Automatic annotation (TrEMBL):
The lineage of its organism: Bacteria, Pseudomonadati, Thermodesulfobacteriota, Desulfuromonadia, Geobacterales. It comes from Geomonas propionica. Residues 19-142 form the MOSC domain. This is MOSC domain-containing protein. SUPFAM superfamilies: PK beta-barrel domain-like (SSF50800). Gene3D superfamilies: PK beta-barrel domain-like (2.40.33.20). Pfam families: MOSC.
Length: 142
């Protein structure tokens, strides 16, 4: 399965929308340098498909890449169908899928705007096995 990266997004803190940036550096067993979700745990990097964001746009929401607090926005890969343990190459980096979806303990701003949010059901999480630089346009290879 081959897709591409649409956007790379970071935020200083957890629980806030992320801002698209020109590139990010992934550090092995840490996550994205400078991102609030990085650290020594299983959810170092979050990914969400552009196709999932499009579902929310179809409901009339003005949302874009990073608004669901995802680090990597992809296109052309059915992320939620990937099994735990699947390996994903993002450009020169290598990730391992550690979790599909998440429990949403606190309703985010998106949920209140739309009455729903795609990240808990369709976002995936991964840890970094091989670091490097990732930027929009890079290939996503499962």
């Amino acid at each position: 399965m081959i897709g591409k990266i649409i956007a790379v997004n970071i935020s200083k803190n957890k629980g806030e929308r992320k801002t698209p940036v020109p590139e990010v550096t992934l550090r092995e067993e840490h996550g994205i340098v400078g991102d609030g979700h990085a650290g020594d745990w299983h959810r170092q990097v979050s990914l969400l498909a552009q196709e999932s964001i499009a579902k929310m746009q179809a409901l009339g929401l003005d949302v874009k890449e990073g608004d669901f607090a995802e680090n990597i926005t992809t296109e052309g890969v059915d992320l939620v169908s990937l099994p735990i343990g699947a390996k994903i190459e993002l450009g020169e980096t290598l990730l391992e899928v550690t979790q599909i979806g998440k429990e949403c303990h606190t309703r985010c701003a998106i949920y209140y705007q739309a009455g729903d949010c795609v990240m808990p059901k369709e976002g995936i999480f991964a840890r970094v096995l091989r670091g490097g630089v990732v930027r929009p346009g890079d290939k996503v290879v499962v």
